[in-house]
Amino acid sequence: MTELTNWIDGARKASASGRFSDVYNPATGEVQAKTPLSTVDELNDAVARAAEAQKGWGATNPQRRARVMMKFGQLINEHMDELAELVSREHGKTLPDAEGDVQRGLEVVEVCMGAPNMLKGEFTDDGGPGIDLYSMRQPLGVVAGITPFNFPAMIPLWKMAPALACGNAMILKPSERVPSTALRLAELIKEAGLPDGVLQVVNGDKEVVDAILDNEDIAAVGFVGSTPIAQYIYGRAAANGKRAQCFGGAKNHMIIMPDADIDKAADALVGAGYGAAGERCMAISVAVPVGKETGDKLIEALVPRVEKLRVGPYNSDQEMDYGPVITAQAKARIEGLIASGVDQGAKLVIDGRGMELQGYENGFFCGPSLFDDVTPDMDIYKEEIFGPVLSTVRAESYEDALNLVIDNPYGNGTAIYTADGDTARDFAHRVNVGMVGINFPIPVPLSYHTFGGWKKSAFGDLNQYGPDAFRFYTKTKTVTARWFSGIKEGGEFNFKAMD
Ligand code: NAD
After folding, report:
1. Cβ neighbours, 10 Å, residue 481
2. H or E stretch including 361?
3. 3-state secondary structure of 295
4. Considering 55, 184, 386, 430, which has the largest number of Cβ atoms within 10 A of its Cβ?
5. Left, alpha or beta for 483 (phi > 0: left; psi -120 to 50: alpha)?
6. Sequence-distant (≥ 6) Cβ neighbours of residue 7 within 8 angstroms
C-alpha cells in the first residue's frame, strides 16, 4: 500500500491531515494507494510559498521559461511508457489509450515552447500626435488547476503548461482517484529546470478545493470535471473576485444522415462510444440516425461490432478495446441507469450488465450496452452516463436531429456523418456546440486551436489551451505614452552665460 504525498517546494511532502482517500486498481478492485486529503492550512502554506517563488519565475524572460517547456517535453517523451503505465494503473484505461492521454497533454507543452511569441503584446505607433500605445501581457500571480479522474496526464498538462509558460505559479489539485501521474509530472518539470515552489501539487477533496476558492492570493481557477461541481466552483470563485474557467460534463450526439457511409459511421461510433469505457467528456453517447432505414442499417452494423469488443485489464497479454470503469460506485450507477432505460421503455439491444471477468471478479468492468428507441424524456438520455453505453435516438428528418442537439442542455462536442457538404456546412454553422466533427467522431481540436464546450459544458470565459490559454493566464496592461519635446529640438552647443 503506497501512501502518497503532496509536492511542495520541489519535493514530495507528506500531508499531516491524517485523512486519506483510496486509490483503487479498477481491474482488481483492490486499494493500491492512499491519497492524502490535505488541510486548509497546508493549502494556504503552499500558496504563500508559491507566491514567493512566482516573483522570480514571473521575472524570468519568456524565452528562458520556454526552454523549461522544451526540456519538459523531451522528458515526457523519454518517460512516455512509464507515464502511460501510471495512468493505466490508477485509471484502468488500456496502455495505447493511456499513451494518447499523455500525448495530447504533451502537444500542449509543445505549443507552450512558443510562449514568447504568444506573449508579445501589441503596439500602435502614433495613436495621436506623438502618442504611442502598447499592451503587454503579464502573469496573474498564483493560479490553481483542479482536474478530473478521466485524463490523469492530459488535463493536468493542459492546466500547468500554459499557466507556467505565462509566468504564473500553479497550485494543482489532481483528482484524488488518480493522483500519481500529476506527482510524477511535477518531478519531471523540476528536472526540466522549473524553480522549486512554482508548481505545488496539493492533493485533497472538497475541503482543499474550497480553500483554493477562498484563498485571496489565488488569482484564477481552471477547473475540469462534472457540471454541478463546475457550476459551483465558477460561482464561488467569481464571488471571490477570481478569474474562472470551469469545464463540465457532456452528452455528445452523432447525427448519421441517410447518405452517410454506414460502415464508417458504425466504426466511428464504436470507438467514440465505448473507448475508455465511455469515460471521456468527448465520448459520443447518443447516435441519431435520420430516417427509419438509416436507423435499421445502423443498428444492424453496430451489433456485431459491439459484440466483438474486448474488455479487460490494461496489462493483459491480449489486446483490449477498453478497461474497467473507475469505481464500484460508477459501475453500480451505470447499471442502474441501464435498468432505468429498460423500465422507461427503451429497447436494450445489447446488455452489458453483470460482467465478470475470470481472475478479475472484483474488478469494475462493464460490458458494452447498446440501446435503440431512446427518447429525450428518459433518464438515460438526460443523464451523462459516463460508461460504455450508446443510446440511439431516431430522428425523422435532419431538422429534428439538429433540434435535438440544439435543445440538449450540454454543448461539448457533436458530429455529423454525411456525404453532403451542404448539410455538413449547415450543421457546423447552426449547431450550438463548442466542438464539431464532420465525418469525425471525437473532434478534440489540435493544441494550437482551443478546447471548450458551450451551454452547461462550460462556465466562464475563454477556452483551454491554444491562444485562449495565453489570454486566460495573463492580464493585459495598456500604456499610452507621450514624450515632450527633447534634445532633438535643439541641443546646447555653447557655454551658457550665467543667468
Ligand atoms: P468531479 O466533478 O467529480 O471531480 C472533478 C474535481 O473536482 C476533482 O478534483 C474532485 O476532487 C473535485 N470535486 C469533486 N467534488 C467536489 C465538491 N463537492 N466540491 C469541490 N470539489 C469537488 O469529476 P470526475 O468524476 O473526476 O470527472 C468526470 C467528469 O468530468 C465528467 O462529467 C466529464 O464529462 C467531465 N470532464 C469534462 C471535460 C471537459 O473538458 N469539459 C474533460 C474531462 C472530463
Report:
1. 10
2. none
3. helix
4. 386
5. beta
6. 13, 183, 186, 187, 199, 200, 201
Which of 40, 214, 224, 412 gets mutated to test ligand 1 (max ligand atoms within 8 A of its CB)? 224
208-231 residue pLDDT tens: 999 999 999 999 999 999 999 999
State in Å: Cα 151 to ligand 1 middle.
11
* DSSP-assigned letter for residue 167: T
Residue 450 sits at φ, ψ, to 5 deg, of -160, 150
Q: Which residues are catalytic?
A: 281
Contact assessment for residue 277 and residue 314, using Cβ atoms and an 8 Å cutoff: no
Q: What is the pLDDT of residue 485?
A: 80
C-alpha to C-alpha distance for 160 and 421, rounded to whole angstroms:
39
What is the SS3 assignment for 226? coil
Residue 38: predicted pLDDT: 98
Mean of pLDDT over the chain: 97
Give, for 67, the enclosing helix (H) or strand (E): helix 62-78
Question: Residue 486's pLDDT band (boundaries 50, 70, 90)?
Answer: confident
Three-state DSSP state, 126: strand
Overall average pLDDT of the 125-152 stretch: 97
Largest pairwise CA distance in the chain = 105
Q: Could you tell me the three cell numbers for 49?
A: 510559498
Inter-residue contact 324 to 365 (CB < 8 Å): yes
Q: Has the ipTM of the complex gone over 0.85?
A: yes
Q: Which residues line ligand 1 (CB under 6 A)?
A: 146-151, 173, 175-176, 205-206, 209, 224-226, 229, 247-250, 281, 384, 386, 412, 453, 457
CB-count burial class (<10 Å; 0-12, 13-18, 19+) for 420: middle
| CA distances (Å), origin 260, targets 71, 111, 282, 404, 420 | 45, 35, 21, 19, 8
pTM of the model: 0.96
Contact 428, 209 (CB under 8 A): no
